[in-house]
C-alpha cells in the first residue's frame, strides 16, 4: 500500500512538472505556434515507460479519467443545442453520416485485405472529432467567434457525441439492445437533472447563493457532483464515461445557477489547471512506441485516412456556406481526433478484436493529428485574418 502511494505521488509530481513546463515551452517556441496539448503529449512520451520511465501511467489512471471527464464536460458545455436547428447543425449531421459511409467502405476494404480485424471500432475511430482537445487551442487563438465558429462547434460536437452513442450501442458491455436501453436511461437521467436547481428553495437556496464565492464554493462542488454522478451512472450501465461527461456538460449549460461567468472561470481553472493536463500527459505515457516503430506504415495510413474520411467531405458539403479557405480550415479541425481513439483502442484490445499494432497506430495517428491539423487550421485562420483589412479596403487579399 505504501509502495503504491509512493509510486502514485512520484508519478503525479513528474506529470505536474510536465504540465507546468508546457506553457513555458509554448512561449519559448511561440513562432512555431505549437499548441500546448502537443507539449503535454510529447512530455508524457518522454517521461513514460518507453523512454525515461520516470512515471507510471497506471498509478494516475483515476486522475487521468477525471481529466478526460472534464475535457468532455467543457465540450458539452460549449454546445449550443439550437445550432442543430440551424444550418451549421444540419450540415454537421450530414457530414458525419457521409463520413460514416466512407469509413465503412474503406475499413471494409482493409478488413478484406487482412489489415484490420476490428471493423466497428476502427471505422468509428475515423468518424471522430476531438472537440474537447480542440477547445483550448480554439480559445487561445480566438477561433470560436465569427462566421466559422458555429460551424466548428457543430461539427466538433457531432463528431464527438454521435461516435460515443455508436460506441454505447455497438460496443457496449451489455449488447446492442441493452446498450440502447442504457443510453436512453442515462439520457433521461441527464434530462431530469436539468430540473434540479428548481428544487432548491427558501433557506437552501440562500445557503447555496451565499456560499457560491466563499470557501464553501457551493456551485463548483455541486457541479463536480453532477459530473461524477453521470460518470458513475454511465460506467454502471456499461457505457463509456465519455458519454456521461459530455451529457454533464450539456446539462450544466441549462443547470448552472448563480454567477455563470464565475463558474466558467472556476471550471477552467480546475479543469485546464490540473485534471485535463494530467489526461494528456497520461495519454502520451501510455503510447505504445514499440508497436508504432515496428509498423510505421499503419500509423501513416490511419493518419491520412483521418484527413481524407473526416476532413475531405467538408470541402464539398460546405461549399455554399463557407469560402474555400474556411472549408479547408474546418476540414483540418474536423479531422483532429484523440480521446475517443484511446477509448476505442482500449475496447478493441480488451475484447481481443483489435490487433495491438492497429490500436497503437490508431492512437499514434490521433496524436499526430493533434500535432499537425490544428496548427494548419490556426495558420489558415491567421492568414484569413490578415487578409480581411485588405479586402475591407477594396484591395486584393494577399
Brief sketch in words of this structure:
With 398 residues, the protein is mainly alpha-helical. The protein has helices at 2-28, 36-47, 61-78, 87-112, 119-125, 131-140, 148-170, 176-193, 202-210, 218-236, 241-255, 260-285, 289-294, 296-311, 313-317, 324-334, 339-350, 356-392.
Average per-residue pLDDT, rounded, comes to 83
Shape: globular
Whole-number radius of gyration?
A: 21 Å
> What's the architecture, going by CATH?
Up-down Bundle
Helices and strands, with pairings:
Elements: H1 2-28, H2 36-47, H3 61-78, H4 87-112, H5 119-125, H6 131-140, H7 148-170, H8 176-193, H9 202-210, H10 218-236, H11 241-255, H12 260-285, H13 289-294, H14 296-311, H15 313-317, H16 324-334, H17 339-350, H18 356-392
Helix pairs in contact: 1-2, 1-12, 2-12, 3-6, 3-11, 3-12, 4-5, 4-7, 5-7, 5-17, 7-8, 7-16, 8-10, 8-11, 10-11, 14-18, 16-18, 17-18
Fold and architecture overview:
- The chain has 398 residues and is an all-alpha fold.
- It has one domain: Na+/H+ antiporter like fold (Up-down Bundle).
- It contains 18 helices and no strands.
- Helix 8 runs parallel beside helix 11 and helix 17 packs antiparallel against helix 18.
- The protein starts with a helix and ends in a 6-residue tail after the last helix.
